[in-house]
Every structure is written in C-alpha cells, then in structure tokens.
Specification:
Length: 226
C-alpha cells in the first residue's frame, strides 16, 4: 500500500536517519547530491513523503512563502522544489501522486484564504517540464516557449528573491549557472532527455545546459480540476 505523509521541513531536518534515506534516493539520480540536498532542504518548509510497504520510496519538497513584487505588494507563493523516486519506482508515477496531494492541500488553502497561489520552480529537464504542463495549470513558458509581460515581471521578482544579479540574464526565464554543483548521473540524464530533442526543444533553443548548471524558470497555477 502506498502512503503519503506531510511533514514540516524542520521536523525532517531534525531526523538525520530520514535525511539519510532521502539522500539514498537522490544518489540513484545525481552524481553527488550532498550540496543539492543541503540547499533544497534548507529552503523547504513542507515535505511530502511517499512510502510503500513501510519504506520511503519518494519525496517532494516545497517552500511556502510571500514573493515581494516590484510594486511593493507581495503574493502568496509556493516554490516547487526537489522531488525524486528511488531506483525501483522511477517512471511509475509515484512522485506525481505527491504532486496531486499537494494540489489538493493547496486548493483547500486557496478556498479558506481567498487568494490564488503563485507556483514556481526551476528545471533542466524536458521531462520535468512536460510533467509540469500535465499536472499544473497556466504554465509559463507554454509548450511553444512563449511567456507574457506579467510573467517577465514575476520572473524578475523571483530572481531578486533569490538574490541573483540582473546583469547575468539575457532571457527572463533562463537562470544560467545557478546549479553548477548539481549533475544528473548519465543514465538519469538520458531518461530525462529521451524522445525530447530537436529544433522544437525549448532547452536547446534557449541554450540551457544541465552540465553547466543552467536552469529554466517556470511558473504555474493550481489546475482548475483535480
């Protein structure tokens, strides 16, 4: 039986045995996940844990926060952070179950608070971007790589929130070299790039290279239907 548990990131950070199990999951996908795990775990506020037959098989880290905007206001936001499945469950949709549990919780929050949530994240993976389009709503960039003027404003707000220098960016949604210490294992890189290449690949068109630590910034909303 598959079981999902929602835990505060603080609680997880205090459980070194659990942190070690999360690192073991990451080692199936990344060459050396130590820096990646430390960065994402420090940033997270909530973590969803997926277990099967009593063993941790996947996780999804998120950061709930207020994003300051250029006009002096702020909007409730969620950073869609690190997620992964262990080697035995890759490609079986386990992490998507975690995404959908988060969506259900977030829809409940929107209903009680009365404000829409702004979702954002970064990726170097065409596969991840395709899943984002399938699971979430109003995704930017769209499937053709287009984005609105408002999205460019929000992208600028995110870069400032991350304390990134404006002089380093030539495209609102491209974050060059922000994850130089994060590299997929060769087999994982092949899985993420499989059947998604050629002139229509937004990552190729924007010059985003996973090996250089480049990332695509994406933004989204909760889907209209769960």
């Amino acid at each position: 039986m598959f079981r999902i548990e929602r835990r505060s990131a603080h609680e997880v950070r205090c459980d070194q045995e659990l942190v070690a199990r999360i690192r073991t999951i990451l080692e199936a996908s990344y060459e050396d996940p130590a820096c990646l795990l430390a960065r994402e775990l420090a940033r997270a506020t909530v973590i969803y844990l997926g277990s099967s037959q009593g063993s941790l098989v996947c996780f999804f880290m998120l950061m709930w926060h207020l994003l300051p905007l250029p006009d002096g206001t702020s909007m409730p936001s969620v950073y869609l952070g690190l997620s992964a499945s262990n080697a035995a469950t890759k490609g079986r949709g386990f992490t998507i179950r975690l995404y959908k549990r988060f969506i259900a919780d977030a829809v409940g929050w929107e209903g009680s608070d009365g404000q829409p949530l702004f979702l954002w994240g970064t990726t170097a993976s065409p596969l991840v971007l395709r899943i984002v389009h399938r699971v979430f709503g109003s995704v930017c960039p769209d499937r053709e790589g287009r984005y609105s003027e408002l999205a460019a404003v929000h992208a600028q707000a995110i870069r400032r929130y991350l304390s990134l220098s404006e002089s380093d960016f030539v495209h609102p949604l491209v974050l060059p070299g922000i994850a130089r210490d994060t590299r997929y294992r060769d087999e994982e890189r092949s899985r993420h790039m499989k059947d998604i290449s050629g002139p229509d690949d937004i990552f190729d068109r924007l010059g985003i290279s996973e090996s250089r630590g480049d990332r695509l910034l994406f933004m989204a909303a909760l889907p209209r239907e769960i």
